[in-house]
Protein backbone atom coordinates (compact mmCIF):
# COMPACT_ATOMS: atom_id res chain seq x y z
CA UNK A 1 0.00 0.00 0.00
CA UNK A 2 1.01 3.59 -0.52
CA UNK A 3 0.27 5.88 2.39
CA UNK A 4 -2.14 8.03 0.36
CA UNK A 5 -4.28 4.89 -0.09
CA UNK A 6 -4.86 4.54 3.67
CA UNK A 7 -8.46 5.70 3.39
CA UNK A 8 -9.39 2.58 1.42
CA UNK A 9 -7.43 0.23 3.69
CA UNK A 10 -8.81 0.92 7.13
CA UNK A 11 -8.91 -2.33 9.14
CA UNK A 12 -6.67 -4.14 6.65
CA UNK A 13 -3.24 -5.65 7.21
CA UNK A 14 -0.90 -3.82 4.82
CA UNK A 15 2.75 -3.36 3.92
CA UNK A 16 4.41 0.04 3.52
CA UNK A 17 7.87 0.52 2.02
CA UNK A 18 9.55 3.75 2.97
CA UNK A 19 11.89 5.68 5.22
CA UNK A 20 11.85 6.78 8.84
CA UNK A 21 10.88 10.43 8.96
CA UNK A 22 11.06 10.81 12.69
CA UNK A 23 10.53 8.80 15.84
CA UNK A 24 10.08 8.97 19.58
CA UNK A 25 9.98 6.42 22.35
CA UNK A 26 7.88 6.55 25.48
CA UNK A 27 8.54 3.50 27.63
CA UNK A 28 6.56 0.66 26.18
CA UNK A 29 5.64 2.38 22.90
CA UNK A 30 7.74 3.50 19.96
CA UNK A 31 6.15 5.94 17.54
CA UNK A 32 7.77 5.82 14.11
CA UNK A 33 6.77 8.26 11.40
CA UNK A 34 7.28 6.51 8.08
CA UNK A 35 7.17 8.39 4.79
CA UNK A 36 6.90 6.74 1.39
CA UNK A 37 6.72 9.71 -0.97
CA UNK A 38 2.92 9.87 -0.97
CA UNK A 39 2.49 10.83 2.66
CA UNK A 40 3.53 10.15 6.24
CA UNK A 41 2.15 7.33 8.38
CA UNK A 42 2.42 7.20 12.13
CA UNK A 43 3.34 3.63 13.08
CA UNK A 44 2.72 2.53 16.66
CA UNK A 45 4.98 -0.19 18.01
CA UNK A 46 3.70 -1.50 21.37
CA UNK A 47 5.97 -3.72 23.41
CA UNK A 48 3.03 -5.97 24.30
CA UNK A 49 1.85 -6.41 20.70
CA UNK A 50 5.08 -7.29 18.87
CA UNK A 51 7.91 -9.76 19.29
CA UNK A 52 10.79 -8.72 21.49
CA UNK A 53 13.09 -8.67 18.47
CA UNK A 54 10.75 -6.30 16.58
CA UNK A 55 10.50 -3.96 19.54
CA UNK A 56 14.30 -3.84 19.95
CA UNK A 57 14.69 -3.16 16.21
CA UNK A 58 12.18 -0.34 16.41
CA UNK A 59 14.11 1.29 19.24
CA UNK A 60 17.32 1.24 17.18
CA UNK A 61 15.78 3.03 14.19
CA UNK A 62 17.28 6.30 13.06
CA UNK A 63 16.05 9.17 10.92
CA UNK A 64 16.03 8.26 7.21
CA UNK A 65 16.67 4.57 7.69
CA UNK A 66 14.85 2.65 4.97
CA UNK A 67 12.23 0.25 6.31
CA UNK A 68 9.42 -2.06 5.34
CA UNK A 69 6.61 -2.13 7.90
CA UNK A 70 3.50 -4.27 8.15
CA UNK A 71 0.45 -3.81 10.29
CA UNK A 72 -3.18 -2.78 10.46
CA UNK A 73 -4.47 0.63 9.37
CA UNK A 74 -6.60 2.61 11.77
CA UNK A 75 -8.26 6.01 11.48
CA UNK A 76 -6.66 8.50 13.87
CA UNK A 77 -7.65 12.15 13.55
CA UNK A 78 -4.60 13.36 15.51
CA UNK A 79 -2.02 11.58 13.30
CA UNK A 80 -0.29 13.76 10.69
CA UNK A 81 -2.21 12.35 7.68
CA UNK A 82 -5.25 11.12 9.58
CA UNK A 83 -4.33 7.41 9.86
CA UNK A 84 -2.17 5.25 12.05
CA UNK A 85 -0.59 1.83 11.60
CA UNK A 86 -0.57 -0.74 14.42
CA UNK A 87 2.81 -2.16 13.53
CA UNK A 88 3.33 -5.91 13.75
CA UNK A 89 6.40 -6.52 11.57
CA UNK A 90 9.45 -4.43 10.79
CA UNK A 91 12.23 -4.99 8.27
CA UNK A 92 15.21 -2.68 8.24
CA UNK A 93 16.47 -2.32 4.66
CA UNK A 94 19.27 0.06 5.59
CA UNK A 95 20.16 1.61 8.90
CA UNK A 96 21.24 5.23 8.36
CA UNK A 97 24.01 6.73 10.50
CA UNK A 98 24.51 10.46 11.10
CA UNK A 99 21.89 11.85 8.73
CA UNK A 100 23.10 15.41 8.21
CA UNK A 101 19.70 17.15 8.24
CA UNK A 102 18.09 16.94 11.66
CA UNK A 103 14.65 18.33 12.43
CA UNK A 104 16.30 21.33 14.11
CA UNK A 105 16.88 24.53 12.18
CA UNK A 106 19.61 24.70 9.57
CA UNK A 107 20.71 27.75 7.61
CA UNK A 108 19.59 28.06 3.99
CA UNK A 109 23.18 27.76 2.72
CA UNK A 110 23.59 24.41 4.47
CA UNK A 111 20.25 23.17 3.21
CA UNK A 112 21.00 24.22 -0.37
CA UNK A 113 24.31 22.31 -0.24
CA UNK A 114 22.26 19.28 0.83
CA UNK A 115 19.42 19.82 -1.59
CA UNK A 116 19.60 16.15 -2.66
CA UNK A 117 18.58 15.21 0.91
CA UNK A 118 16.57 18.31 1.79
CA UNK A 119 14.00 17.20 -0.81
CA UNK A 120 12.91 14.52 1.68
CA UNK A 121 11.58 17.05 4.17
CA UNK A 122 7.83 17.44 4.54
CA UNK A 123 7.87 21.08 3.53
CA UNK A 124 9.89 20.53 0.36
CA UNK A 125 7.67 17.59 -0.46
CA UNK A 126 4.57 19.76 -0.17
CA UNK A 127 6.04 22.56 -2.29
CA UNK A 128 7.14 20.30 -5.12
CA UNK A 129 3.84 18.44 -5.11
CA UNK A 130 2.11 21.79 -5.67
CA UNK A 131 4.61 22.45 -8.47
CA UNK A 132 3.50 19.21 -10.09
CA UNK A 133 -0.14 20.16 -9.76
CA UNK A 134 0.44 23.57 -11.33
CA UNK A 135 2.31 22.01 -14.26
CA UNK A 136 -0.38 19.40 -14.75
CA UNK A 137 -3.26 21.84 -14.60
CA UNK A 138 -1.52 24.16 -17.06
CA UNK A 139 -1.16 21.31 -19.52
CA UNK A 140 -4.74 20.16 -18.91
CA UNK A 141 -6.02 23.68 -19.50
CA UNK A 142 -4.47 23.93 -22.96
CA UNK A 143 -5.06 20.31 -23.94
CA UNK A 144 -8.77 20.64 -23.17
CA UNK A 145 -8.94 23.72 -25.40
CA UNK A 146 -7.55 22.04 -28.48
CA UNK A 147 -3.97 23.33 -28.28
CA UNK A 148 -1.19 21.18 -29.71
CA UNK A 149 1.98 20.69 -27.68
CA UNK A 150 4.97 21.60 -29.85
CA UNK A 151 8.41 21.19 -28.31
CA UNK A 152 10.83 24.04 -28.90
CA UNK A 153 14.57 23.46 -29.31
CA UNK A 154 16.97 24.15 -26.45
CA UNK A 155 20.03 24.84 -28.62
CA UNK A 156 19.36 27.92 -30.68
CA UNK A 157 21.28 30.16 -33.05
CA UNK A 158 19.69 33.43 -31.89
CA UNK A 159 18.34 35.38 -28.92
CA UNK A 160 14.66 35.87 -28.13
CA UNK A 161 14.77 38.04 -25.00
CA UNK A 162 17.79 40.31 -25.50
CA UNK A 163 21.47 39.46 -25.90
CA UNK A 164 22.67 40.28 -22.38
CA UNK A 165 21.49 37.10 -20.66
CA UNK A 166 22.60 34.44 -23.18
CA UNK A 167 24.37 31.25 -22.17
CA UNK A 168 26.77 30.60 -25.02
CA UNK A 169 28.02 27.21 -26.10
CA UNK A 170 30.07 25.80 -28.95
CA UNK A 171 28.11 24.07 -31.70
CA UNK A 172 30.70 22.38 -33.92
CA UNK A 173 32.70 25.54 -34.26
CA UNK A 174 29.65 27.82 -34.43
CA UNK A 175 28.12 29.82 -31.61
CA UNK A 176 24.91 28.48 -30.16
CA UNK A 177 22.88 29.61 -27.15
CA UNK A 178 20.69 27.86 -24.60
CA UNK A 179 17.12 28.90 -25.28
CA UNK A 180 15.77 31.92 -23.37
CA UNK A 181 12.26 31.23 -24.66
CA UNK A 182 10.54 28.98 -27.19
CA UNK A 183 8.39 31.82 -28.45
CA UNK A 184 9.87 32.41 -31.89
CA UNK A 185 9.45 28.72 -32.72
CA UNK A 186 5.91 28.76 -31.35
CA UNK A 187 5.11 31.58 -33.78
CA UNK A 188 6.16 29.32 -36.65
CA UNK A 189 4.14 26.46 -35.16
CA UNK A 190 1.02 28.62 -34.65
CA UNK A 191 0.98 29.28 -38.41
CA UNK A 192 0.95 25.50 -38.94
CA UNK A 193 -1.28 24.30 -36.04
CA UNK A 194 -3.31 27.38 -35.05
CA UNK A 195 -3.15 27.00 -31.26
CA UNK A 196 0.08 25.68 -29.78
CA UNK A 197 2.14 25.68 -26.61
CA UNK A 198 5.53 24.55 -25.46
CA UNK A 199 6.57 23.74 -21.92
CA UNK A 200 10.22 23.42 -21.16
CA UNK A 201 13.28 24.88 -19.50
CA UNK A 202 14.52 28.37 -20.31
CA UNK A 203 17.99 29.70 -19.56
CA UNK A 204 19.02 33.21 -18.62
CA UNK A 205 22.43 34.30 -17.40
CA UNK A 206 20.89 36.84 -15.01
CA UNK A 207 23.78 38.58 -13.29
CA UNK A 208 21.58 39.67 -10.42
CA UNK A 209 20.88 37.95 -7.12
CA UNK A 210 17.20 38.41 -6.37
CA UNK A 211 14.44 36.34 -4.83
CA UNK A 212 12.80 36.09 -8.29
CA UNK A 213 15.59 35.04 -10.62
CA UNK A 214 16.89 31.62 -11.56
CA UNK A 215 19.40 30.84 -14.30
CA UNK A 216 17.30 27.87 -15.38
CA UNK A 217 13.53 27.96 -15.02
CA UNK A 218 10.47 26.38 -16.62
CA UNK A 219 8.10 28.29 -18.80
CA UNK A 220 4.88 27.39 -20.57
CA UNK A 221 4.38 29.44 -23.73
CA UNK A 222 1.14 29.39 -25.72
CA UNK A 223 0.91 31.06 -29.13
CA UNK A 224 -2.30 31.52 -31.12
CA UNK A 225 -2.86 32.63 -34.72
CA UNK A 226 -5.39 35.46 -35.14
CA UNK A 227 -5.54 36.03 -31.34
CA UNK A 228 -5.86 39.72 -30.46
CA UNK A 229 -4.19 41.52 -27.59
CA UNK A 230 -7.42 41.66 -25.56
CA UNK A 231 -8.23 37.97 -26.22
CA UNK A 232 -4.73 37.11 -25.05
CA UNK A 233 -5.41 38.71 -21.66
CA UNK A 234 -8.66 36.80 -21.35
CA UNK A 235 -6.86 33.52 -22.03
CA UNK A 236 -4.36 34.34 -19.29
CA UNK A 237 -6.89 35.18 -16.62
CA UNK A 238 -8.92 32.06 -17.35
CA UNK A 239 -5.76 29.96 -17.23
CA UNK A 240 -4.49 31.41 -13.94
CA UNK A 241 -7.91 31.05 -12.29
CA UNK A 242 -8.15 27.44 -13.45
CA UNK A 243 -4.73 26.61 -12.03
CA UNK A 244 -5.65 28.12 -8.65
CA UNK A 245 -8.92 26.17 -8.53
CA UNK A 246 -7.09 22.93 -9.28
CA UNK A 247 -4.44 23.55 -6.62
CA UNK A 248 -7.11 24.38 -4.02
CA UNK A 249 -8.99 21.22 -4.96
CA UNK A 250 -6.12 18.73 -5.11
CA UNK A 251 -3.45 20.11 -2.76
CA UNK A 252 -5.30 20.63 0.54
CA UNK A 253 -2.78 18.60 2.57
CA UNK A 254 0.20 20.27 0.90
CA UNK A 255 -1.21 23.77 1.50
CA UNK A 256 -1.83 22.87 5.14
CA UNK A 257 1.73 21.61 5.61
CA UNK A 258 3.18 24.88 4.37
CA UNK A 259 0.53 26.81 6.33
CA UNK A 260 -0.68 28.74 3.31
CA UNK A 261 -3.64 31.04 4.05
CA UNK A 262 -5.91 30.15 1.14
CA UNK A 263 -8.31 33.07 1.47
CA UNK A 264 -6.32 35.32 -0.89
CA UNK A 265 -6.17 32.48 -3.45
CA UNK A 266 -9.94 31.98 -3.34
CA UNK A 267 -10.36 35.56 -4.59
CA UNK A 268 -8.52 34.80 -7.83
CA UNK A 269 -11.38 34.70 -10.35
CA UNK A 270 -11.80 36.54 -13.66
CA UNK A 271 -11.80 39.34 -14.61
CA UNK A 272 -8.43 40.63 -13.41
CA UNK A 273 -7.87 44.39 -13.11
CA UNK A 274 -5.95 46.14 -15.91
CA UNK A 275 -3.62 49.06 -15.31
CA UNK A 276 -2.20 51.12 -18.18
CA UNK A 277 1.55 51.66 -17.90
CA UNK A 278 1.00 55.44 -17.78
CA UNK A 279 -1.42 55.01 -14.86
CA UNK A 280 1.04 52.67 -13.17
CA UNK A 281 3.68 55.42 -13.36
CA UNK A 282 1.27 57.88 -11.77
CA UNK A 283 0.30 55.42 -9.05
CA UNK A 284 3.94 54.68 -8.23
CA UNK A 285 4.82 58.36 -7.98
CA UNK A 286 1.87 58.85 -5.63
CA UNK A 287 3.32 56.09 -3.50
CA UNK A 288 6.66 57.85 -3.22
CA UNK A 289 8.58 56.34 -6.12
CA UNK A 290 10.30 58.57 -8.64
CA UNK A 291 9.56 57.12 -12.08
CA UNK A 292 8.78 58.53 -15.50
CA UNK A 293 7.57 57.28 -18.89
CA UNK A 294 10.30 55.03 -20.31
CA UNK A 295 11.43 53.55 -17.00
CA UNK A 296 11.32 49.80 -16.55
CA UNK A 297 9.88 48.42 -13.32
CA UNK A 298 12.16 46.53 -10.96
CA UNK A 299 11.21 44.22 -8.15
CA UNK A 300 10.31 47.03 -5.75
CA UNK A 301 7.98 48.75 -8.20
CA UNK A 302 6.28 45.46 -9.07
CA UNK A 303 5.81 44.61 -5.41
CA UNK A 304 4.30 48.03 -4.73
CA UNK A 305 1.91 47.74 -7.69
CA UNK A 306 0.84 44.18 -6.95
CA UNK A 307 0.17 45.11 -3.31
CA UNK A 308 -2.50 47.54 -4.54
CA UNK A 309 -4.73 44.73 -5.80
CA UNK A 310 -6.31 41.60 -4.33
CA UNK A 311 -6.22 39.79 -7.66
CA UNK A 312 -3.43 39.50 -10.20
CA UNK A 313 -3.19 42.71 -12.22
CA UNK A 314 -2.24 43.29 -15.86
CA UNK A 315 0.13 46.18 -16.49
CA UNK A 316 -0.20 46.93 -20.21
CA UNK A 317 1.00 49.27 -22.95
CA UNK A 318 4.65 49.55 -21.96
CA UNK A 319 6.92 51.96 -23.87
CA UNK A 320 8.39 50.10 -26.83
CA UNK A 321 11.97 51.01 -25.84
CA UNK A 322 11.88 48.82 -22.73
CA UNK A 323 10.23 45.82 -24.38
CA UNK A 324 11.21 43.11 -26.88
CA UNK A 325 11.70 43.77 -30.60
CA UNK A 326 8.82 41.53 -31.71
CA UNK A 327 6.02 43.36 -29.87
CA UNK A 328 3.30 45.08 -31.91
CA UNK A 329 3.15 48.86 -31.41
CA UNK A 330 -0.32 50.17 -30.58
CA UNK A 331 -1.59 51.87 -33.78
CA UNK A 332 -3.29 54.57 -31.62
CA UNK A 333 -0.29 55.17 -29.38
CA UNK A 334 2.81 53.98 -31.30
CA UNK A 335 5.21 54.87 -28.46
CA UNK A 336 3.71 51.91 -26.60
CA UNK A 337 3.34 48.22 -27.45
CA UNK A 338 0.42 45.79 -27.17
CA UNK A 339 2.10 43.95 -24.34
CA UNK A 340 1.11 43.12 -20.79
CA UNK A 341 2.80 41.67 -17.74
CA UNK A 342 0.66 39.88 -15.19
CA UNK A 343 1.70 40.72 -11.63
CA UNK A 344 0.68 38.26 -8.92
CA UNK A 345 -0.83 39.71 -5.73
CA UNK A 346 0.59 39.68 -2.19
CA UNK A 347 3.64 41.51 -3.44
CA UNK A 348 4.84 38.79 -5.81
CA UNK A 349 5.16 40.70 -9.07
CA UNK A 350 5.50 39.44 -12.63
CA UNK A 351 4.56 35.84 -13.36
CA UNK A 352 3.56 36.27 -17.03
CA UNK A 353 4.91 38.32 -19.93
CA UNK A 354 2.94 38.41 -23.15
CA UNK A 355 2.08 40.45 -26.22
CA UNK A 356 0.60 40.70 -29.67
CA UNK A 357 3.44 40.15 -32.16
CA UNK A 358 4.41 42.29 -35.13
CA UNK A 359 3.02 40.61 -38.25
CA UNK A 360 4.15 43.18 -40.83
CA UNK A 361 7.41 42.26 -42.57
CA UNK A 362 8.82 45.80 -43.00
CA UNK A 363 7.99 46.88 -39.46
CA UNK A 364 9.55 43.74 -37.97
CA UNK A 365 12.71 44.18 -40.06
CA UNK A 366 12.96 47.80 -38.92
CA UNK A 367 12.57 46.85 -35.25
CA UNK A 368 15.23 44.16 -35.61
CA UNK A 369 17.65 46.62 -37.19
CA UNK A 370 16.97 49.14 -34.42
CA UNK A 371 17.87 46.39 -31.94
CA UNK A 372 21.06 45.50 -33.85
CA UNK A 373 20.05 41.88 -34.30
CA UNK A 374 22.00 39.74 -36.81
CA UNK A 375 19.29 39.45 -39.49
CA UNK A 376 20.78 36.35 -41.14
CA UNK A 377 20.01 34.28 -38.03
CA UNK A 378 16.37 35.42 -38.06
CA UNK A 379 15.60 35.00 -41.77
CA UNK A 380 13.31 32.07 -41.02
CA UNK A 381 11.43 34.22 -38.49
CA UNK A 382 10.98 36.98 -41.07
CA UNK A 383 9.72 34.36 -43.56
CA UNK A 384 6.66 33.92 -41.33
CA UNK A 385 5.74 37.52 -42.26
CA UNK A 386 6.22 36.78 -45.97
CA UNK A 387 3.95 33.77 -46.37
CA UNK A 388 0.40 34.16 -45.09
CA UNK A 389 1.16 36.46 -42.18
CA UNK A 390 -1.63 37.08 -39.64
CA UNK A 391 -1.93 38.97 -36.36
CA UNK A 392 -1.10 36.63 -33.50
CA UNK A 393 -0.42 36.73 -29.77
CA UNK A 394 1.00 34.64 -27.00
CA UNK A 395 2.64 34.73 -23.61
CA UNK A 396 4.98 32.92 -21.27
CA UNK A 397 4.15 31.92 -17.69
CA UNK A 398 7.05 31.11 -15.39
CA UNK A 399 6.39 27.98 -13.33
CA UNK A 400 8.69 28.86 -10.42
CA UNK A 401 7.37 32.38 -9.90
CA UNK A 402 3.81 31.12 -10.10
CA UNK A 403 4.61 28.50 -7.47
CA UNK A 404 6.43 31.02 -5.27
CA UNK A 405 3.21 33.04 -5.20
CA UNK A 406 0.76 30.16 -4.77
CA UNK A 407 2.86 28.61 -1.98
CA UNK A 408 3.71 32.09 -0.63
CA UNK A 409 7.46 31.47 -0.51
CA UNK A 410 9.97 34.20 0.22
CA UNK A 411 12.36 33.08 -2.55
CA UNK A 412 12.26 31.04 -5.79
CA UNK A 413 15.09 28.76 -4.67
CA UNK A 414 12.64 26.26 -3.11
CA UNK A 415 10.34 26.18 -6.15
CA UNK A 416 12.51 23.95 -8.35
CA UNK A 417 14.05 20.59 -7.36
CA UNK A 418 17.63 21.60 -8.13
CA UNK A 419 17.92 25.38 -8.46
CA UNK A 420 20.55 27.00 -10.66
CA UNK A 421 21.46 30.31 -9.13
CA UNK A 422 24.16 32.92 -9.59
CA UNK A 423 27.46 31.01 -9.56
CA UNK A 424 25.80 28.05 -7.82
CA UNK A 425 25.42 24.76 -9.66
CA UNK A 426 25.89 22.13 -6.87
CA UNK A 427 24.33 19.63 -6.37
O1 LIG B 1 8.72 38.16 -19.65
P1 LIG B 1 9.54 37.07 -20.26
O2 LIG B 1 10.99 37.35 -20.46
O3 LIG B 1 8.83 36.70 -21.62
C1 LIG B 1 9.29 35.83 -22.56
O4 LIG B 1 10.23 35.09 -22.44
C2 LIG B 1 8.38 35.75 -23.77
N1 LIG B 1 9.16 35.27 -24.90
C3 LIG B 1 7.23 34.84 -23.45
C4 LIG B 1 6.25 34.72 -24.59
O5 LIG B 1 5.60 35.69 -24.90
N2 LIG B 1 6.15 33.56 -25.18
O6 LIG B 1 9.43 35.75 -19.36
C5 LIG B 1 8.17 35.17 -19.10
C6 LIG B 1 8.07 34.70 -17.68
C7 LIG B 1 8.22 35.80 -16.63
O7 LIG B 1 7.00 36.48 -16.44
C8 LIG B 1 8.63 35.00 -15.42
O8 LIG B 1 7.51 34.37 -14.82
C9 LIG B 1 9.50 33.93 -16.02
O9 LIG B 1 9.14 33.81 -17.37
N3 LIG B 1 10.92 34.29 -15.91
C10 LIG B 1 11.74 33.84 -14.93
N4 LIG B 1 11.53 33.03 -13.88
C11 LIG B 1 12.57 32.75 -13.07
N5 LIG B 1 13.81 33.23 -13.26
C12 LIG B 1 14.09 34.04 -14.32
N6 LIG B 1 15.34 34.47 -14.50
C13 LIG B 1 13.02 34.38 -15.20
N7 LIG B 1 12.93 35.15 -16.31
C14 LIG B 1 11.65 35.08 -16.71
MG1 LIG C 1 8.94 39.92 -18.62
From TrEMBL:
Transmembrane segments: none
NCBIfam families, sorted: asnS, PRK03932.1, PRK05159.1
Annotated EC: 6.1.1.22
Broadest EC class assigned to this enzyme: ligase
Signal peptide start and end residues: none
Gene: asnS
Any single biological process term in GO: asparaginyl-tRNA aminoacylation
Family membership: Belongs to the class-II aminoacyl-tRNA synthetase family.
CC terms in the record's Gene Ontology section: cytoplasm
Intracellular or extracellular location(s): Cytoplasm
Keywords tagged on the record: Aminoacyl-tRNA synthetase, ATP-binding, Cytoplasm, Ligase, Nucleotide-binding, Protein biosynthesis
InterPro entries: Aa-tRNA-synt_II, aa-tRNA-synth_II, aa-tRNA-synth_II/BPL/LPL, Asn-tRNA-ligase, Asp/Asn-tRNA-synth_IIb, NA-bd_OB-fold, NA-bd_OB_tRNA
GO molecular function: asparagine-tRNA ligase activity; ATP binding; nucleic acid binding
Record-annotated Aminoacyl-transfer RNA synthetases class-II family profile domain positions: 128-417
Entry-linked Pfam families: tRNA-synt_2, tRNA_anti-codon
Gene3D superfamilies: Bira Bifunctional Protein, Domain 2, Nucleic acid-binding proteins
Assembly: Homodimer.
Source taxonomy: Bacteria, Pseudomonadati, Caldisericota/Cryosericota group, Caldisericota, Caldisericia
Protein name, per record: Asparagine--tRNA ligase
Catalytic activity: tRNA(Asn) + L-asparagine + ATP = L-asparaginyl-tRNA(Asn) + AMP + diphosphate + H(+)
